[in-house]
């Protein structure tokens, strides 16, 4: 076989190769175990001994040239494949980017943050406490004795005889009183609370409260009324009025229900409040003859329902995007 002819033939065939699969097949034809070079090497045994080195050297040179030709072609094919891939996956940086929708705080969280900002501006601290609470802090420290109806098993989520899911955030107030060691207090306590209510349009087994507590010298009912009027006007508008009606709570005396004058002319109850009961002051380490205090409890869902005209409390908890998108703060 003319060795130079072999090189020219390989060059001609390589020009038509466009992918690695065909290249590998062609390479096997020339350089494989049964290829042309291997066949030439087998012919060496039939040559005179003095010609074998010369012919063997020529065959090896041709083999090396073929290998170099195939590697060069492989590099060309790979570069071409990269260019085709880059062309197919190219990005037009002048195109507008995808619009990513940004979430916002839940409506209840927005209400809590709005009220927190208001009370912090009045000098209040924000306090938190455990949601799994002891009977002692949830009831006894708040002047609810063992036989009080609010402690009935059917009204609260008891974990064991001494622990339950807190029914209000008042235990945070009790803990703060003990920690304050008789010093003045000015706090709000936002958080989730739990009661054994059947879920319906106006009730939920879980809801949110913001309770407040102020203790100090010369604290009066007028301080309480002024504070509540300020927060209601901040939340509902400066034209709103409130009405205080006598009520009963074990931990306050006197106690009041607070109504807001609605746009349609009705008075609607929004929260409960009162002067801290002397027994609660004593259990918290305060002398009721020297200091006084007031407390209030605001239902966060109740405020949201009234302000935003929501017809079902369950809307707050069903995570319906259509509902939540209505309260994105104008974004």
From TrEMBL:
Q: Listed GO molecular functions?
A: phenylalanine-tRNA ligase activity
Q: Which domain of life is it from?
A: Bacteria
Q: Does Magnesium count among this protein's keywords? A: yes
CDD domains given in the database record: PheRS_alpha_core
User: Per its UniProt record, what Pfam families does this chain match?
Assistant: Phe_tRNA-synt_N, tRNA-synt_2d
User: Could you list the residue ranges forming a coiled coil in this record?
Assistant: none
Task: Kindly list the positions annotated as binding Mg(2+).
Answer: 253
Q: Where is the Aminoacyl-transfer RNA synthetases class-II family profile domain positioned along the sequence?
A: 105-303
Query: Into which family does the record put it?
Result: Belongs to the class-II aminoacyl-tRNA synthetase family. Phe-tRNA synthetase alpha subunit type 1 subfamily.
Q: Which named protein is this?
A: Phenylalanine--tRNA ligase alpha subunit
Biological source species: Paracholeplasma vituli
């Amino acid at each position: 076989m003319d060795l130079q002819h072999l090189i020219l033939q390989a060059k001609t065939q390589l020009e038509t190769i466009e992918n690695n699969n065909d290249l590998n097949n062609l390479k096997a034809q020339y350089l494989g175990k049964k290829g042309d070079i291997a066949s030439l090497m087998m012919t060496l045994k039939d040559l005179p001994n003095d010609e074998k080195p010369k012919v063997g050297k020529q065959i090896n040179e041709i083999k090396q040239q073929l290998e170099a030709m195939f590697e060069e072609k492989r590099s060309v094919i790979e570069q071409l494949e990269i260019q085709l891939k880059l062309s197919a996956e190219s990005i037009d940086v002048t195109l507008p980017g995808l619009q990513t929708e940004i979430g916002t705080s839940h409506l209840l969280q927005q209400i809590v943050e709005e009220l927190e900002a208001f009370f912090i501006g009045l000098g209040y601290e924000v306090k938190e406490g455990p949601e799994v609470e002891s009977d002692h802090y949830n009831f006894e420290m708040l002047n609810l004795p063992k036989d009080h109806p609010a402690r009935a098993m059917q009204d609260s989520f008891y974990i064991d005889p001494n622990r339950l899911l807190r029914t209000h955030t008042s235990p945070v107030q009790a803990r703060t009183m003990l920690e304050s060691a008789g010093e003045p207090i000015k706090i709000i306590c936002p958080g989730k609370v739990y009661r054994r209510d059947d879920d319906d349009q106006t009730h939920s087994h879980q809801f949110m409260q913001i309770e407040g507590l102020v203790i100090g010298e010369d604290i009066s009912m007028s301080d309480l009324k002024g504070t509540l009027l300020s927060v209601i006007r901040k939340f509902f508008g400066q034209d709103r009025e409130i009405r205080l009606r006598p009520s009963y709570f074990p931990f306050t005396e006197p106690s009041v229900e607070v109504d807001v004058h609605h746009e349609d002319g009705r008075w609607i109850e929004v929260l409960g409040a009162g002067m801290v009961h002397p027994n609660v002051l004593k259990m918290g380490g305060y002398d009721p003859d020297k200091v006084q205090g007031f407390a209030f409890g605001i239902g966060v869902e109740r405020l949201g329902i009234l302000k935003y005209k929501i017809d079902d409390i369950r809307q707050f908890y069903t995570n319906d995007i259509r509902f939540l998108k209505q309260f994105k703060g104008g974004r």
